[in-house]
Design a protein that fits this description.
The chain is mainly beta. The protein contains three helices and 13 strands.
């Protein structure tokens, strides 16, 4: 028989009742249902393009709601030998809908229009040698606090770029903003759901360019470094300072007028090592990263403190599959296999 016209295609569908995720908790009276459709087409075993669609309907016990359509297009293309060669990964997302979460007196409901895109281009010479990488990102922002639209896209917290800027500096500043926004000097009755102002360390409202270089010293040790350059897609706007000392003119989280949209440049260096424990069929992973942020004009006032440093140490245990003593039967003669 001939090849199927569906050869290379994969289809999936699902219906979920959300127990708990980043924006809903059933135990808190937040009922969320969503339908999912997805498809993926394989051009080869290591090259595919895909489409993912979600409709989410969420209701809270206080009458608030969320209705959104999410469309995600992604691709992963690899050219070269296994573990080496050129790899291009890209993803684009659009979220459209309506919500009454985080209402204001003038706008009890908001239209949602959020866009984001990310890409990673990497080239690896093999197990021992150089690895080049370039991460690109664009995430829509929103500097208008008192209109009827929500534009700022927050990436999943597990998607990270850099160590200091988004995870620490902006995570801390937006976390503080949700508290100062309820100051009685600004409003007699604070808006609801102000906790949604905080990014939680997510990458958001930024254009990012992140070139990286890694060196495999051997099969188990790698050192790497890079420079994250971030530009705001909307001026960082703090509700308290904008409405008090700013008189409606955008002010950042330190009460300063942003000089430009440059968030800053973060330099990052790190090292990773894996130690196999073959008797336990597992491995121990060590990781050390150090980052330094030079703040840009969008974070005016923060640059007076000079460069900001941060670091982290990672220790993890994972299963380990030893491939060193395996022999591929395809390399044996028919007599040896018998």
């Amino acid at each position: 028989g001939g090849k199927s016209s569906l050869r290379g295609w994969m289809f999936a569908a699902a219906f979920d009742r959300v127990i708990r995720d980043d924006v809903a908790d059933a135990s808190a009276g937040e009922e969320a249902l969503q339908g999912v459709l997805s498809t993926r087409f394989f051009l080869a075993k290591d090259r595919w393009v895909g489409l993912y669609y979600v409709y989410r309907s969420q209701n809270h016990d206080d009458g608030k709601f969320l209705r959104v359509n999410v469309i995600d297009v992604a691709t992963d293309l690899h050219f070269g030998a296994k573990g080496a060669g050129l790899r291009v990964q890209a993803e684009g997302v659009a979220i459209m809908g309506t919500t009454s979460l985080a209402p204001s007196p003038d706008y009890p409901e908001h239209d949602i229009s959020q866009l984001a895109g990310a890409a990673r281009i990497s080239y690896d010479v093999g197990e021992a040698g150089l690895r080049f990488g370039l991460d690109l990102g664009w995430f829509s922002g929103d500097d208008a606090l008192d209109d009827g639209t929500v534009h700022n896209f927050k990436a999943d917290p597990n998607f990270q770029q850099g160590l200091v800027l988004f995870r620490r500096v902006l995570g801390w500043q937006t976390g503080r903003a949700r508290l100062t926004a309820s100051n009685p000097d600004v409003v007699g009755q604070p808006n609801d759901d102000l906790e949604r102002l905080a990014t939680g360390g997510s990458v958001t409202s930024a254009l990012t360019v992140f070139p990286k270089l890694g060196i495999h010293l051997n099969d188990h040790i790698e050192v790497y470094g890079g420079a994250l350059i971030a530009v705001a897609t909307a001026q960082p706007t703090d509700p308290f300072h904008t409405r008090t000392i700013g008189g409606g003119e955008p002010r950042n989280f330190l009460g300063e007028v942003p000089a430009d949209r440059m968030l800053g440049t973060e330099l990052l260096v790190g090292a990773r090592a894996v130690i196999p424990v073959r008797s336990l069929h597992s491995a121990v992973w060590f990781g050390l990263e150090v980052g330094q942020l030079v703040a840009g004009g969008a974070l005016a006032g923060l640059d007076e403190a000079g460069p900001i440093q941060g670091g982290r140490l990672v220790l993890a245990f994972t299963p380990w599959k030893d491939e060193t003593n395996k022999t591929d039967k395809t390399d044996k003669t028919d007599e040896e296999q018998r």
